[in-house]
Each structure stands twice: as structure tokens, then as C-alpha cells.
Write a sequence for this structure.
């Protein structure tokens, strides 16, 4: 017994040669087309393409990690992964806890969707939003009744089964859902601009990684490859740089 | 999986389902059943061992050991599981990383806690950033086993203590009058007999253990409930197999799985208890 414990301890404490060039990318994997798990069980989406390209340009090796949206910031600061690349809008509240690179998606409107058979003023009724998003805080301050859900998918299910009147989320996330619903779901109210653009989240103390990533984003903006990616995943008329 | 799966949108219903149910995502879902089963099968003996240690410690006449045992069982039993599962793995992980940091990077004098960040040098990370994904998964799986064992060990410890007390006093007195030492009384008289009294409580614990496996997701392991939720949620045409919200079917599948495991364990426990009844 003592020997087993001792050998486990030695194994844990032993010094493996470490290469510092591996970056672990944390994402939610539940927010198509930003990031999602495809039918092969792999992470896919705009941010997967973007992240891989950024890592290639910065000559880093990247490993992808899936983490719940709820705990995505705590797990970054405790060091489980090194970046958050999960459609996270840059806000001043988040900026107090973590750091952001420059935007890689320009500020994009949010929108409401509701059942086409339902109340047309649904956006002032009961509105579903994902916990801890800028949309959730917007709804809370808009005077509507907010119901929060842990995943984006559950917010849509809540409207479908009548638990909520409307959903508020990024328009790019809602658009494919509306077009796939055969007229069951429609956009209601007007689009709202609730936040800044989307950036990559990093630990405050990780300024060298921030510089590297900013440089790579700059390069992708300069040669137009970022715009191509945006068009590929968000449609021809998506906002570009 | 099959040859004809390249374009699912033109397939007949039967073929569509045969492709859908064998997609890479579903394979991961099926594998997660194995993860859950292996977790409970590994955890059960370890927590039994922890339970033994805990109950023997709390019955010890050496005061320090006695209070350590009592503290362990009472603290762990009193704290909600969910709090514990958030607390234990992070604490173990940070203690390990902190001590590795102290050993491997003595030249860094800055504190590892900077604001909200917990920063150890990259060589002290556990597992290392450069390690392949399977090492990361194995590491969190081991942390999960340890946390589950600590929690269920505390409950087992209480059950075992009770069972030891239930062994008839006359048996112990007879053993002593034969001149057996303390250790002999434990090994030859008490422990073989206490199983009879411990079994109902331990079978309860086993059932609780099976039921609490969805807590695995808290530890970053993609368990069956995570996959059922993820795969069952409605899928737009960005996916190869778009479908509406099918979560209810997946959860129905989980229900059947859990009931099946419960039924099988019931049969197994009946067999064990018959055996013990015959032996004593």
C-alpha cells in the first residue's frame, strides 16, 4: 500500500519535459453557428475555424475543451484552459474579471423570436434568455419578466412549449432556427444592439498570449480571411470588418 | 458509419435512423455509459475501503485517530453532495499544482494567487497543457473517483460502525474468554459477522451511488445525462441530421438504463445476502 501511494506521488511530482506552446481553448459547444458539437462528436463552427487559424498563424498547438457556459469564466481563471472562445461579447463587467483580445466579430444585433401564433408583443411578456449573457441583463432591465436557462437550446424549447413568450439571443444564433421552423417561429419586435463585439477571453495576467492573439487577429483582418470566415458561417449579409 | 450515410437528407426514414444512431456523436454517447458503469464499479470497493478505515478509526481508543474518523464521517455526511463535488476536486487539484509549483519553479517568487487568477508555472500544471486529451480526461476521471469515494466512504463508515455494534456482545465475550487478542476478535469474529448487518445499508449506498453519477458533469466529464441533453436538443439544418426537440426520448432511454441497473443490483444483492445468511 505504502509503495503504491509513494509511486503515485512520485509520478505526480515527476518533471516531464514541458512545451509551453500548447494552448487550451475553452468553448461552450452549444451555440451554433458560433460553436457547436457536430454529428461526428467534434467541435465545429465559426469559432473552431477561427481558433484553429489563429493558432496556426501564431504557431501554437491548440487543444479544444468544452465547458458549461455557467462556469466558463471561473474555470479560465483557475487555469483549466487558457482562452475563452465562445461567442462572448466584450462587456465592462466581464473585463473586470478577465481580459479580452480585440473583437473578432463586429457588434451584432440581438433579436427576439416568438411563436407566430402567439402574442405579437411577446417581447414585453415573459422572455427567456441564457444565464449570464448580455441578453439576460438587457431583458431584466427592459421591464419584461426574465426566465433564465443554462443552455441556449433550452431557451428555444421554453418558447416552443409555452413556458416563455419570447427568446432573446444573438440574431445570428436565432436566424437559422427561424428559417428552419417552417413559419412556426418568427422574429418579433425590433433588433436591439445590446453589447460590443465578440472577443477572446484571457486571464488578466496572460498579457503575452493576448498580444500574440491580437497580432494574429490583426493579420486575419488585414488579408480579409476573417471576413471570409464570417460570411461562410453567418451568411453573405453578415456584418464584417 | 455506413456507406450510404454521406448525404442523409435523401435517405429513407429507416436508413436515416440507422445513420443517425451510429453517428460519431452517438458513439460518444454509448461510450459514456461505459464510463458511468466503470466509475461506479471502481468507486464502490474504494469507498468500502474508506468506510472501513473511517469506522475503525472512529472506534479506535487512540484519541487522535478517533476524532479524525469522527470528523471525516460527520463533515462529509453533513455537507451537500453538490458543494462537495465542486470543492474537493478543485482543492485536490490546486494542492497538487501548488506543491509541484514549489518544487519545480522555486525561482518564481510571486504568489500563485493574483487577483482571481490561480497561476502556477506551466511546468507545474497538472496535467500539462501539452499532454494529449486522454490524459486530461483520465485525470479528471481519477479526481471524480476520489471525490465519489470520499463522499460515499463516509456514509459507508457509518453503516459499518452500526453493523459492528450490532454483532452480539456474547460472541465477543466468548471470543475473549478463549484468549483471543483484540485483533483476532476483529478479524475472526466481528468482521465476518458484521456483513450480515451492513448489507442492507451498503446496498442502499450502492443505489445512491448509481443515482448520483450525473454529478460527473460538474467535474468536467461528459456523462450520459450531458450527452442525452446535447444530442436530444433540437438541431437546425447546420447539422447533418436536423431534428426537433427529442430530449424526452433520450431521457426515457436513461430512465430505462437506470431502472435496469437498479433491478440487476437488486438481484445481485439478494444473492449475496442469501450467501451470507447461509455462511453465518
Amino acid at each position: 500500500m505504502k509503495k503504491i501511494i509513494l509511486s503515485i506521488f512520485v509520478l505526480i511530482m515527476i518533471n516531464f519535459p514541458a512545451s509551453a506552446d500548447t494552448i487550451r481553448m475553452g468553448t461552450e459547444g452549444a451555440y451554433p453557428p458560433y460553436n457547436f458539437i457536430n454529428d461526428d462528436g467534434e467541435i465545429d463552427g465559426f469559432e473552431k475555424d477561427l481558433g484553429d487559424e489563429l493558432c496556426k498563424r501564431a504557431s501554437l498547438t491548440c487543444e479544444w475543451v468544452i465547458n458549461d457556459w455557467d462556469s466558463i469564466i471561473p474555470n479560465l481563471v483557475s487555469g483549466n484552459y487558457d482562452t475563452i472562445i465562445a461567442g462572448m461579447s466584450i462587456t465592462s463587467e466581464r473585463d473586470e474579471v478577465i481580459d479580452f483580445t480585440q473583437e473578432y466579430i463586429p457588434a451584432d444585433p440581438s433579436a427576439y423570436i416568438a411563436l407566430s401564433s402567439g402574442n405579437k408583443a411577446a417581447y414585453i411578456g415573459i422572455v427567456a434568455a441564457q444565464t449570464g449573457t448580455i441578453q439576460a441583463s438587457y431583458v431584466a432591465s427592459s421591464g419584461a419578466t426574465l426566465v433564465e436557462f443554462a443552455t441556449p437550446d433550452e431557451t428555444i424549447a421554453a418558447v416552443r412549449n409555452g413556458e416563455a413568450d419570447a427568446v432573446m439571443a444573438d440574431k445570428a444564433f436565432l436566424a437559422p432556427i427561424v428559417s428552419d421552423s417552417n413559419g412556426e417561429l418568427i422574429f418579433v419586435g425590433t433588433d436591439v444592439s445590446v453589447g460590443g463585439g465578440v472577443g477572446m477571453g484571457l486571464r488578466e495576467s496572460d498579457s503575452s498570449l493576448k498580444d500574440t492573439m491580437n497580432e494574429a487577429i490583426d493579420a486575419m483582418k488585414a488579408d480579409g480571411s476573417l471576413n471570409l470566415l464570417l460570411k461562410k458561417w453567418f451568411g453573405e449579409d453578415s456584418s464584417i470588418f | 458509419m455506413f456507406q450510404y450515410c454521406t448525404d442523409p437528407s435523401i435517405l429513407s426514414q429507416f436508413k436515416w435512423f440507422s445513420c443517425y444512431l451510429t453517428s460519431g456523436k452517438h458513439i460518444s454517447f454509448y461510450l459514456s455509459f461505459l464510463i458511468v458503469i466503470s466509475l461506479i464499479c471502481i468507486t464502490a470497493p474504494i469507498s468500502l475501503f474508506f468506510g472501513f478505515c473511517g469506522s475503525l478509526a472512529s472506534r479506535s481508543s487512540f484519541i487522535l485517530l478517533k476524532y479524525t474518523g469522527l470528523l471525516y464521517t460527520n463533515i462529509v455526511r453533513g455537507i451537500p453532495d453538490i458543494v462537495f463535488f465542486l470543492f474537493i476536486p478543485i482543492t485536490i487539484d490546486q494542492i497538487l499544482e501548488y506543491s509541484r509549483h514549489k518544487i519545480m519553479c522555486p525561482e518564481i517568487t510571486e504568489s500563485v494567487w493574483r487577483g482571481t487568477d490561480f497561476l502556477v508555472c506551466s511546468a507545474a500544471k497538472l496535467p500539462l497543457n501539452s499532454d494529449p486529451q486522454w490524459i486530461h480526461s483520465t485525470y479528471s476521471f481519477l479526481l471524480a473517483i476520489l471525490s465519489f469515494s470520499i463522499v460515499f466512504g463516509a456514509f459507508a463508515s457509518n453503516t459499518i460502525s452500526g453493523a459492528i455494534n450490532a454483532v452480539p456482545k456474547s460472541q465477543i465475550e466468548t471470543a475473549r474468554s478463549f484468549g483471543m487478542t483484540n485483533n483476532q476478535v476483529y478479524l475472526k469474529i466481528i468482521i465476518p459477522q458484521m456483513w450480515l448487518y451492513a448489507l442492507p445499508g451498503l446496498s442502499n449506498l450502492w443505489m445512491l451511488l448509481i443515482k448520483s453519477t450525473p454529478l460527473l458533469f460538474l467535474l468536467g466529464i461528459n456523462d450520459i445525462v450531458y450527452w442525452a441533453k446535447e444530442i436530444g436538443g433540437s438541431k437546425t439544418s447546420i447539422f447533418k441530421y436536423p431534428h426537433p426537440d427529442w430530449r424526452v426520448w433520450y431521457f426515457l432511454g436513461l430512465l430505462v438504463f437506470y431502472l435496469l441497473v437498479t433491478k440487476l443490483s437488486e438481484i445481485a444483492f439478494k444473492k449475496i445476502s442469501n450467501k451470507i445468511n447461509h455462511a453465518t
Summary: Chain A touches chain B through 46 residues (CB under 8 Å). Residues 207-222 of chain A form the longest helix (16 residues). Residues 19-107+198-234 of chain A form a domain with the D-Maltodextrin-Binding Protein; domain 2 fold (CATH 3.40.190.10). The longest strand of chain A covers residues 185-192.
